[in-house]
Design goal:
By secondary structure, this protein is of the alpha/beta class. It has six helices and six strands. It has a six-stranded mixed beta sheet, sandwiched between helices. The relative contact order is 0.23. Bound molecules: zinc ion. Zinc ion binds next to loops.
Amino acid sequence: MVLLSCVPADLDTATPVGGMAAAVQGSRVALDLSAYEPPPTASGPHTTLVDELQEAILRPPMQEWPIDWSDERKRLAAKYFEFHKGWDIGPDPDYDRLTTMDPRMIVVHWTAGASARSAYHTFYQARQTGHRNRRVWNEVNLSAHFIVDRDGTIIRLMPETRMGRHTIGLNHLSIGIENVGDGEHFPLTEAQLEANAMLVRWLAWRYPVTHLIGHYEYRDFEAHPYFEESAHWFRTGRCDPGPDFMARLRAQVAELHLEGSPHADG
Ligand SMILES: [Zn+2]
């Protein structure tokens, strides 16, 4: 696909909630599991011994660095989604419900930096700072679900079923993975590739994920049922994490048969 103008300098922005129109595919399980139940989602936890076994096999080791997920963040996120999705959140909103999702997509990023700690601090607080914090539709801070450090260490920032803010139009149904690095001075590493593959396998088993994309592909979904963004001017040019990294990641997890960009050549 044609890459849009891309300034590899910033973490991303994105959007909100709404009804799910797309069909959900069944679980993609690496093992032969008879009498197996569908994967857990936001609406239901693990329930069986087989689930617990599969979870133990597939869940990669990860560190927990939780970002602030306070009532304020939920409220700001809901206001963001209200604007960007046209929601009517009402006078007494259920903020937990409004910011909870069943993930359908995984979006892979790079941080455009060299430090996991720096990325964590960028995401930590509930509000954006500076000029970005002046309007209600832009108050909630950026966030992703995972950071993958350059040595492959996986860091979990927030529950996968919480809506983050990392990809315009797709935040209400996507899990964001941020890789520490960029396309120039800190190219993504083989250890990150391996860690992303492990993470994607686990997530695709645990949630009803249908798509795996790079952030640079998000605008290809503007005509897709998944994409919800009411502000036509609210777009950014992105090139992360690059087509080479995505091609190699897709090759690693080909057995999952996750879909990519609807505009991909093949
Ligand atoms: Zn990105």
